[in-house]
């Protein structure tokens, strides 16, 4: 990318889009973390999931 492109409007728009995508990915990761934590709490209550397979 040329230096002119770094300071142009296109770079600014791309940067904004990338920040929005990054924030969306952070929200997805946070949601995943919440679900994993819930699963771990549930696992401690009902026993290890691996023992439920039975085989």
Task: Report on the architecture of this protein.
The chain has helices at 3-6, 9-46, 50-53. It has 55 residues and is mainly alpha-helical.
The whole-number mean of residue pLDDT values reads 77
The general outline is: rod-shaped
Oligomer: single chain
Structural class of the helix and strand makeup?
mainly alpha
Number of helical segments with 4 or more residues: 3
The total tally of domains equals 1
**Uncertain stretches of 5 or more adjacent residues:** none
- Terminal-residue CA separation: 56 Å
Helical residue percent band: over 70%
- Order of helices and strands, N to C? HHH
Radius of gyration using CA atoms only = 22 Å
List keywords for this structure.
0% strand; 55 residues; 84% helix; mainly alpha
In a few lines, what is going on in this structure?
The protein is mostly helical and 55 residues long.
Helices and strands in order:
Layout: H1 3-6, H2 9-46, H3 50-53
């Amino acid at each position: 990318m040329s230096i002119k492109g770094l300071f142009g409007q296109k770079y600014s728009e791309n940067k904004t889009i990338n920040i929005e995508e990054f924030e969306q990915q952070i929200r997805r990761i946070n949601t995943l973390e919440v679900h994993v934590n819930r699963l771990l709490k549930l696992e401690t209550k009902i026993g290890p999931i691996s023992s439920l397979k039975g085989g």
